[in-house]
């Protein structure tokens, strides 16, 4: 028994109450994995469009950038007024 651990030894050689990393991890379902991947793609897409719009508003060489105009056109009114 290790110092500081107050557990009885178990039948498998480990101390009771001690679990290994494989048992500690919760099993993930396919649905949870699919939702995590979809959320990551959504966050990446929103971040990319947000950065493109922000760079168009703050540092564009020309105001006639087609992508910036289209993104600005689809944003809500408060963001368009700010930009």
Q: How much helix, percentage-wise, in residues?
A: 55-70%
- Order of helices and strands, N to C? HHHH
Structural class: mainly alpha
Outline type:
elongated
Specify the biggest β-sheet.
none
Q: How is the quaternary structure best described?
A: single chain
The averaged pLDDT comes out at 75
H/I helix tally:
4
Notable characteristics:
single chain; 83 residues; mainly alpha
Fold and architecture overview:
With 83 residues, the protein is an all-alpha fold. It has four helices and no strands. It has helices spanning 21-24, 30-59, 66-74, 77-82. Helix 2 crosses helix 3 (66-74). The termini are far apart. The mean pLDDT is 75.
Quick take:
The protein is an all-alpha fold and 83 residues long. The chain is 59% helix and 0% strand. It starts with 20 loop residues before the first helix and ends with a helix.
What are the SSEs and their pairings?
Elements: H1 21-24, H2 30-59, H3 66-74, H4 77-82
Helix pairs in contact: 2-3
């Amino acid at each position: 028994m290790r110092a500081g651990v107050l557990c009885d030894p178990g039948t498998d050689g480990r101390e009771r109450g001690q679990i290994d990393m494989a048992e500690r991890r919760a099993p993930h379902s396919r649905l949870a994995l699919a939702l995590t991947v979809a959320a990551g793609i959504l966050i990446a897409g929103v971040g990319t469009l947000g950065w493109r719009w922000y760079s168009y508003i703050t540092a564009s060489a020309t105001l006639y950038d087609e992508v910036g105009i289209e993104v600005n056109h689809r944003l809500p009114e408060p963001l368009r007024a700010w930009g």
